[in-house]
Prior knowledge:
The structure holds 2 protein chains of 2 kinds.
Chain A: E1 2-11, E2 14-24, E3 29-34, H1 40-47, E4 55-62, E5 65-68, H2 74-80, E6 82-85, H3 97-104, H4 111-124, H5 126-130, H6 141-154, E7 159-163, H7 171-186, E8 190-195, H8 198-204, E9 207-212, E10 215-221, H9 222-226, H10 229-234
Parallel strand pairs in A: 3-8, 3-9, 6-7, 7-8
Antiparallel strand pairs in A: 1-2, 1-4, 4-5, 9-10
Helix pairs in contact in A: 3-6
Chain B: H1 4-12, H2 20-44, H3 47-72, H4 80-95, H5 98-104, H6 110-113, H7 119-141, H8 146-166, H9 168-171, E1 177-178, H10 186-204, H11 207-217, H12 219-224, H13 229-255, E2 257-258, H14 265-278, H15 283-307, H16 312-327, H17 339-346
Antiparallel strand pairs in B: 1-2
Amino acid sequence: MLEVRDLNVYRGATHVLKGVSFDVRQGQLAALIGANGAGKSTTLLTLSGLLRPRSGSALLHIENETLDLTRMSSEKIVRAGLIHCPEGRQIFQSLSVAENLDMGAYTQRDRAEVRRTMEEVHTLFPILAERANVAAGSLSGGEQMMVAIGRALLAKPKMLLLDEPSLGLAPLVVETIFDVIQRLKSTGVTILLIEQNAAMALEIADSAYVMENGNIVLSGTGKELASNDRVRQSYLGVTA
Amino acid sequence: MQTPSQTTSMAETASAPTTPRRGFVAAILTIVVAAAAVWAAQQGLNSYLVTLLALLFINAALAVSLTLTNGLTGLFSLGHPAFMTIGAYVAAILTFSARRKGSMLPGLPDWLASTELSMFPALLIAGLVGGLVALAIGWAVLRLKGHYLAVATLGLIIVVQGLATNWDGITRGGAGLSGLPRHVNIWWALGFLVIVVAITWRIKYSSLGRAMMAVRENELAASCSGINAARLKILAFVIGAVMAAMAGALLAHLISVVTPKTYSVLLAFNIVVMVVIGGSGSITGAIVAATAITVLSEALRPVEESIGLYGMSQVIVALCLIVVLYLKPGGLFGSGEPAFVRRLFSGRKTQ
Lengths: 240, 351
């Protein structure tokens, strides 16, 4: 579904992604793990058109169509069905929960369909229905994360980019979020997940990539990487 | 940046289904009442007070238009006087009597020197030119955020004033253009205010307005929702500039003079103060604050003169600003409209 080839991205003068290549297959959940500053978020920002690579390509195969994401505006990428749920929740603080969710459906024209998706999101996160008219900024961190994911779902993603959904959340809430991610996967949404919580990410990932200093240094299935010594030492906190 | 009081009122602003008919009737009734009041004022008040009322309407329209750019979209622009100056000069050059124009403004090309338009087409062209300038400027300047944008737009005022002062052949330099035809009366001002409020209201309660608020709240998240933030910001900037240019043209033809100093940096701050006191993003707030500040500064003028303390009204306006922001940090009405206004004009129940 997604073929990333030799991406080189600079932020200012810094060479952040140094020839990154990886694949995400249709219907799969791929995890991208790595330390702070490895280039994970930069990868996602590039895929969603918010950063331009200096070279390389990112091909998205959707319904017999092949789109090069590196040549599209973020607006068109959203319309194509690749939805980015950015790091740190990034909700609209002073808009209500309902308004936040509505913004997700900004590109959707079919109102009946939007209403149906809204109901699905409310079944997934009942608290969002209860808090519909509350300013999103007053919610707890976990609830805000739900708003962010719900908003992404209203854009009808075919592929979802999740940037650190567990960041700063209580362990119980993290589990809820990971449950939802797995449920989404089972509905056929392809997912690329960035996580610092490598243990949990590898547990649910079909395939996984380890990123260091702007390069993919390891790849394999989630299980393979979870038992890889290097990964265990560096990311899972297991001492050899 | 957001305060609790503002947060709650924002949350109430939308998310109810629209039933436009009742709101439309209410709007028409309000306009009829306002028109009746203006008619009564014309009969009963002296011409100074009627002109003051017209000034008040135009100030309110300016504040509302800035509420769209600054309040809804969150672009801290101080550039309104620049666009007003542009609009005023464009319209003035177009309406000036063709007999005197040739000798007064030798720099004008012949076709322009021999044109003499009536107010309405001149007003439209003024708005158009203001909008085009905003489009060109906005493209460059809107990459800047917050204070940087404020400083850049402040610079724009200086640039436009410099142009108007030194481009003698077209603008008559520092002396300005006086003796403009007094085409504008209070009915023009009222009509303009109604149109500006109607357009801003429609935008605010549409998906366009919601997208503008989304850009204000969080540009990254807005982009992730498929909003073209750059285009939207330029749009908001241009709409505000068109309205400002038209307001400038109307004011010039109300007081029948325009100089490079008519619309100054001081005015930029005054309009921003109106928006901030009213609550940025609140149309009702902008109108109430514009009314209060216009009336206050005008009422204090004779006091200033009698005690010889010029500039005192500015101090009092500043004190009002401090008091309002101390008591209600989000402005009088936060970012929303007060409940009764919303119920009246949008025909929806408050949630």
